[in-house]
Amino acid sequence: MGLTSLEKIVALQKNTSNIRNICILAHVDHGKTTLADCLIASSGIFSSRLAGKLRYMDSREDEQIRGITMKSSAISLHFTSDGSDYLINLIDSPGHVDFSSEVSTAVRLCDGAIVVVDAVEGVCPQTQAVLRQAWLENIHPVLIINKIDRLILELKLTPLEIYTHLQKILEQVNAVTGSLFTSKVLEERAEKDADSQASFDNTSGEQVYDWSAGLEETDDSHLYFSPDQGNVVFASAIDGWGFSVQQFAQLYSKKMGIKAEVLLKTLWGDFYLSAKAKKIMKGAQLKGKKPLFVQFVLENIWSLYEAVVIKRDKDKVEKMVSSLGLTIAARDFRHTDPKVLLSAICSQWLPLSHAVLTMVCSKLPSPLDISAERVEKLMCVGARRFDSLPDQTQDLKRAFMECKSDDSAPVIVFVSKMFAVDSKTLPQNKQRPLTQEEIAQRRELARQRHAEKFAASQGPDNPEQAATGNTAEAAASIGEIRKDLLSKQMETMSLKASTPEKEDKEHFVAFARVYSGVVRRGQRMFVLGPKYDPAVVLNKLPAGCSAADDLPSIPHMACCTLEDLYLLMGRELEQLQDVPSGNVLGIGGLEEFVLKSATLSTSPACPPFTPLNFEATPIVRVAVEPKHPSDMPKLVRGMKLLNQADPCAEVLIQDTGEHVLVTAGEVHLQRCLDDLRERFAKIEISASEPIIPFRETIIRPPKMDMVNEDMGKQHKVAVIHQVKGEQSKYCEGFQVDSDGLVTLTTSNKLATLGIRAMPLPEEVTWLLEDSSDLIRTMEQFNLNVKEGREALEINQRTLEAIQDLKQKLETHLQGRKWRGAVNHIWTFGPRRCGPNILLNRLEGYQRPSVWQCLDKHRSEVGVYRDFDNSIVSGFQLATLSGPMCEEPLMGVCFIVEKWDMKTPQHFAQTHHQDSVEEETTEDLQEQAEGEASNNYKGPPQGAHAQVSPHSNSTAGRYKRKDDIAVADCYGPFSGQLIAAMKDACRQAFRAKPQRLLAAMYTCEIMATAEVLGRVYGVLSKREGRVLQEAMKEGTGVFIIKAVLPVAESFGFADEIRKRTSGLASPQLVFSHWEVISSDPFWVPTTEEEYLHFGEKADSENQSRKYMNAVRRRKGLCVEEKIVEHAEKQRTLGKNK
Ligand SMILES: Nc1nc2c(ncn2[C@@H]2O[C@H](COP(=O)(O)OP(=O)(O)OP(=O)(O)O)[C@@H](O)[C@H]2O)c(=O)[nH]1
Ligand SMILES: [Mg+2]
């Protein structure tokens, strides 16, 4: 197929039913980019000989060098199938976990996905991740089992073994899909039940749930991958071949006279050809016969590989080529590398692009087939219900479903990421080759000029010419052409003049898709931020307004002009005038309006799309600074650009003033730093060692000491002793009892707090950690109610999830200590959604429950006590940075057991006997609150003082004198209470055995038996722990699953790769937080311990090492003995 012209692509863009927006997804190195090469080569963009070598979609230099894709990029291809023309908008995505956010940006814009699986490695962690992502976005997948050549050449399997191996891979993939499907059906079923229960709330008696019922009723056969369904292709992208079972069914039906439909159903499966009966029979395995797939398909391919690559049997190859009816160039036959001949034969016999694109066109949906479920999901941000959206917004669902491209349809566009492009690659700045017409025009011009010259040399009074009368005409036309030329020259000049300025500026192109309507160059659109809410805004805007109107400023909404529209062609961009619905496109000129992603629409009723599902947590952070301090402004600008150009990198300025870059992993970090150096900041920069996050927690008192001796009660006493000893250092005026209850009084002695810290059960901590979104929604609801704003409409599914969370907490928090705890939760922290709990155990204080969103009838009552908020804020601050090394807390429950507020009389008696003035607490508080709201600048979440329900009491006004002065000298009361609460929590925390939690990666390493020992060596050196080791059946490859602290992971992948000569390369994925068992404050106390660990005892203490490293980095004091054994040093000196 020849190269498709731009006009043709533009025409194809209008035929929505023949558009396929697809992405290629897989684990790293399973062959996505190689597959993309084959597909691109088939449309004539480059020669098919280069396919697999060029890796066209890996346009960055570092992608080519490292051999991994780092970003998703799109290309539009023209394909003809069964006489119809199709436009395939293909997106290649990266497979490395560090770039999984790029996969999310690709998946959002597509309707279908090609999932590639390596035939040797099978289903890997990222394969599961991408299948889940495709599932979450409701896009249809098809499967390619790639690298089948490796089974033949590397593993040397026989055709029958290959068949069994392929079957296993299919089973694995289908198992992943199956588990996704089951969880969804069960969820839907629960939802339905909840709905029906809600409608019969009072009438229904006891209900018995039959959870399996939903599964049996629902037909799921279409979901699975099966060669006979036509959604599986077997391939070797590197050799350029691939086939679906259909192709062979058609081939053999002609050859053998068996119906193609019959062959299609039996070619894959336990069927064999009975030579006697000349019939296809079932039960090949039982009877020890060759399955049809082996006999008709695999054996052919296998013998081709054998003849060409293994045996290099020229005659046999020639015979095969002629029997297949192929024509192979003589130079391919002569080539020394047999792979060249192989791919020449295979790519003619079973061209991969044909098999894949035919499957894509027939099995994957067009933009018109978008499902209602997907549309509703896209339109409902967070916990909102679709039917709670305004009517105008709900009407837009139709526009999504119709996907119309006429002018009446509202325009809806989603931008999934912004990517930076070199200004030279922009089509408007590129020097284009001249078109045929332009060349003709120039030729004509030259001819005319020549004629003119000739005429001039002949003289004006040439009688011959004057007589013809043509000169005037010719002169006129020459004049016109000249004018034309002049204007063109002017254009180029103006372009040139503007170029230097343009080159300075980084150009961003939005990676986007049109969901409805037609976008045009110069069109005005609304840019809707993720917090935009049409329900709030619509009534403020005039009906039928558009982005071109002069509108009042609305939060989270802006108006932009679409400056340029581009067709994305891999490494190139082509300029377009308009793009109809259903297409993927690039949009220029949005850098001022869109940071990373956004929704654009001509209708203000359009809701922002749900945010992208990012799988990876950015966890690796480094501080960056310019080599030359004067370059700081450039660095700041560069970091801003980097933030915009990367979907998941975060940049921030820490309290210390450091510029911090947060990335998903080591490879991602490297890429970000390279980009910063070479592209965005263009300066030399230095990056700190990665900053490793830790968490602080407490545990139950251990029963054994470090040498495994029973400790009895001695430890408890030691801890309390330690805390008391440190009292004077940290905070005055607190007491701690033998049980760990800390009592602390505010500086002005008006309030006393009693706080106790308790470790949360592990399950509760994980549960809270996983449910942070739910908790945030809940707390948002509570805050709205508290501040008297309109209650948040929470959808049924979220309510269910909250109910479920509550129930789970109740089951995990069992026992005397936790009785009634769930209903007494005060709040969560840090940031009101973290994995720590504040518990209310105050007698006589019933505050509104945190679970009030579950209480439909608002039957529960309760009033907030004054300064409730200060307690919450103090708790938030305490959990945000703990006493060990100012890292956030995790898994800690603080229990408020005492909160006394002294009356002012008492206060006055004790402090100012001579100025006894009567005053109510309320008055004092009222004033303190006033001050608090003016002065105190606490954390943004609700640090402002709570207005007490009875603070506006009509009690008489009293004179305030010294009392207030005393209160004043310690600062506003609410501030004091916050500080006291924070200190009390910290001391309560210290009264318990403290531990650090380390962030852990999981990694899955594939290694052959020879290098297994080395892999284990590296793992144990880096404190890794092997969880599982299994051998992949029939391959001789071991899969090792291990966990490894993030702190030890830097350079791990490289080290493994080096030690195993590149045979094993691990993928590190953040998995969880794990308690480091050693006590950072431990010192040897018993004789055995001295014997065992020595006097200093720091060799073993991993946790102290980590803690001190963090403290040093943060500039906190570190207790360490620096000079030891001074005598020895002296002796050394003497000996010299
Ligand atoms: N033997 C064999 N090797 C293949 C095949 N397809 C790809 N490869 C090789 O596998 C390696 C990875 O291929 P890529 O296409 O870059 O893989 P990818 O999935 O794009 O990798 P990422 O983008 O980094 O996730 C390259 O060295 C390819 O040459 C195949 O069919 N057979
Ligand atoms: Mg790739």
What key phrases describe this protein's structure?
1136 residues; disordered C terminus; binds magnesium ion
If you had to describe this structure to a student in words, what would you say it looks like?
- By secondary structure, the chain is of the alpha+beta class.
- The protein is 41% helix and 19% strand.
- It has 38 helices and 34 strands.
- A hairpin with a 4-residue loop joins strand 8 and strand 9.
- Helix 5 packs parallel to helix 7.
- The protein starts with 5 loop residues before the first helix and ends with a helix.
- The protein binds guanosine-5'-triphosphate (GTP) and magnesium ion.
- Magnesium ion binds next to helix 2.
The gyration radius over C-alpha positions equals 36 Å
Give the CA-CA distance, first to last residue: 83 Å
Low-pLDDT windows of residues: 200-215, 463-472, 485-503, 910-966, 1129-1136
Q: Overall 3D geometry?
A: globular
| Main sheet attributes: strand count, strand direction, barrel closure | 8 strands, antiparallel
Number of strands: 34
Bound molecules: guanosine-5'-triphosphate, magnesium ion
Helix content bin: 40-55%
Total DSSP helices: 38
User: What spatial order of strands do you see in the largest sheet?
Assistant: 14-13-19-10-11-18-15-16
Strand portion, in percent? Answer: 15-25%
Structural class: alpha+beta
The whole-number mean of residue pLDDT values reads 80
